[in-house]
Amino acid sequence: MTDADTVPLVAAALPEGDRSLLLVDDDRPFLLRLSRALEQRGFAVRTAESVAEGLAAIKAEAPAFAVVDMRLADGNGLDVIESLQRRRADARVVVLTGYGNIATAVTAVKLGAIDYLAKPADADEVIAALMRAPGEKAEPPENPMSADRVRWEHIQRVYELCERNVSETARRLSMHRRTLQRILAKRAPR
């Protein structure tokens, strides 16, 4: 299949001519960097740093595209996805998260997300996910996370869910408290 063969599929799957995009993330430097990159690629970007701001932006004008962080300071990005899908069924949503797991990925897709990307995702990955034709499979990553990084991400996720309580995190992970403290003190593996 050539690139020319895929163009009609992509065009049919996209909201006709509408390049409005809502970007919802509470990591301000990441939000600004991704926003600029998406604007340079032709999107009309609006940003929100919380669930409340995202819901208000959708109420004002439902965008054709959205990129939503799963975990936000005031709640869950799934609420934003659900609201957008109610207001605009043809909207294409990509979920970003630093704490991915299968259950949340399945829930996000059931609510209408078309893809689920792990942070840090760059603008090209986000656009590829937004523009992918229905049924088209994503390319496998060239540099996937190492097993050590996946383990570290899981430990960080549980630590955050336990409200940064080392003892509770160690108990839930069936790990000695001192071992966990040493892991938390180190930098993230590549």
Which features does this protein show?
about 190 residues, Arc Repressor Mutant, subunit A, 2 domains, five-stranded parallel β-sheet, two-stranded antiparallel sheet, 9 helices, 7 strands, disordered N terminus
Word description of this protein:
It contains nine helices and seven strands. With 190 residues, the chain is an alpha/beta fold. It folds into two domains: 3-131, Response regulator (Rossmann fold), CATH 3.40.50.2300; 147-185, Homeodomain-like (Arc Repressor Mutant, subunit A, Orthogonal Bundle), CATH 1.10.10.60. The chain has a five-stranded parallel beta sheet, with helices on both faces. It is globular and about 55 Å long.
> Under the CATH scheme, which architecture of the largest domain would be assigned?
3-Layer(aba) Sandwich
Biggest sheet: strand arrangement: 2-1-3-6-7
For the record, the CATH class of the largest domain is: Alpha Beta
Overall structural domain count: 2
Given as residue ranges, the uncertain stretches (5+ residues, pLDDT < 50) are 1-13
Q: Provide the gyration radius in Å.
A: 18 Å
The CATH H-level homologous superfamily of the largest domain: Response regulator
Helix fraction by DSSP (H/I, runs of at least 4): 40-55%
How much of the polypeptide forms β-strand, as a percent range? 15-25%
Overall outline: globular
Mean pLDDT: 83
Major β-sheet annotation? 5 strands, parallel
Task: Look up the CATH topology of the largest domain.
Answer: Rossmann fold
- Count the strands? 7
Topology as a string of helices (H) and strands (E): HEHEHEEEHEHEHHHH
Helical segment tally?
9
Roughly how many Å apart are the termini?
35 Å
Helix-strand category: alpha/beta
